[in-house]
Specification:
It is a single chain. It is built from no helices and eleven strands. By secondary structure, it is mainly beta. It folds into two domains: 1-70, SH3 type barrels (Roll), CATH 2.30.30; 71-102. Bound molecules: zinc ion. Zinc ion is lined by residues 71, 73-74, 76, 78, 94, 96-97, 99.
Length: 102
């Protein structure tokens, strides 16, 4: 996956289209990511022992195909390329400004 934890992403599909948020978690095996404030669902927690019943809001994962990385250099939602650096390591690059994304 070309999206990593703590990346800033733009949601391009679904009911949260247009929202931006930070990636909290990636699930590579399912090609899904959890983005802060995106795909919020309410969970009704039943009272249990001393704990009162409550409603908590939680992010659901979204498909990585439905988000785009926001480039830290040109601030645009972009496709991510991969290039091999001089020392043989691979880096992600913005396809718009060609800058390496950390
Ligand atoms: Zn860029």
């Amino acid at each position: 996956m070309r999206i990593k934890k703590s990346d800033l992403v733009l949601v391009t599909k679904g009911k949260d289209r247009g929202k931006q948020g930070t990636v909290q978690q990636t699930i590579a095996s399912k090609r899904r990511v959890v983005v802060e404030g995106v795909g919020m669902v309410k969970r009704h927690m039943r009272a249990q022992g001393m704990r009162a019943a409550e409603i908590i809001e939680k992010e659901m994962s979204v498909s990585v195909d439905n988000v785009m990385l926001i480039c830290t250099h040109c601030q645009a939602a972009t496709k991510v390329g991969v290039k091999t650096l001089g020392d043989g390591s691979r880096a992600r690059v913005c396809k718009k400004c060609q800058e390496v994304i950390e």
